Amino acid sequence: MTKPEILYYSSFPSFIGNVYIVKTIRGICRISFPCSTEEDFLQLFFKEPCTKIQRDPSALTCEINILKDYFEGKQVTFDFDLDLSCSTLFQRKVWEKLQEIPYGECRSYKWVAEQIGSPGAARAVGMANNKNPLPPVIPCHRVIGSDGSLTGYATGLHIKGHLIEMERRAALLSSLPQPEREASLAEKPE
Which of 82, 115, 160, 183 has the fewest CB atoms lying closer than 10 Å? Predict the structure, then answer.
């Protein structure tokens, strides 16, 4: 009999709702948001008899701190290990390409398909994005329609729009000279 794999999880509140994060011994394997309750989130794992999931915030301190900074609008580097062992080769190709899209910028599904050597696979790219277990680390929100429209996002287009706008603002602010950046940050929104 195979010993069950232990998954460690924790959560934190963000402007889009509660964010849950799960880690195996290989790395982060799932980030879910927004989850209204812990029970809703845990339903994802009750179907897997070979896993045991336990809350352990201390096992995820580093990753949570980086993700909190991201959701507060800071440009961060997601420099923690990822566990993509449950993905297909095609999904991994798509997700690796998504990680090359610069912060604060967007690309089309068609662009991603062309970049991975499958120019006719824009719909398949969309399906791989839909199965992405690690948003925003794998930034599927940065992929939009060829006409610039927001299309497809598993957690809702309103959240996709918020993430894109948050990144654009942060990227724009970071490109300003220091005095202008400080003045911009000091301004109160009306």
Answer: 183
Per DSSP, helices labelled H in 99-177 are: 109-115, 122-130, 157-175
**What are the tens digits of pLDDT across the range 27-42?**
999 999 988 788 888 8
Helix (H, G, I), strand (E, B) or coil at 52: strand
Nearest to 155 by CA among 30, 7, 47, 48: 30
Residue with tokens 């880690």: 23
Residue 68 tokens, joined: 């909190």
The CA distance from 42 to 8, in Å, is 12
Q: How far is CA 125 from CA 42, 86, 104, 134, in A?
A: 27, 17, 20, 15
Q: Which two tokens stand for residue 151?
A: 């299309």
Give the integer Cα–Cα distance in Å for 28 and 83. Answer: 5
Q: Residue 112 CA to chain centroid, in angstroms?
A: 17
Encoding tokens for residue 55? 């809350």
Residue 62 among the catalytic residues: no
183 is written with which tokens?
């003045």
Instruction: Give 55-73 pLDDT, tens digit per residue.
Output: 999 999 999 999 999 999 9
Among 29, 35, 106, 140, the one annotated catalytic: 140
CB-based burial, 80-92: b 16+ in 10 Å, e otherwise: eebbbeebeeebe
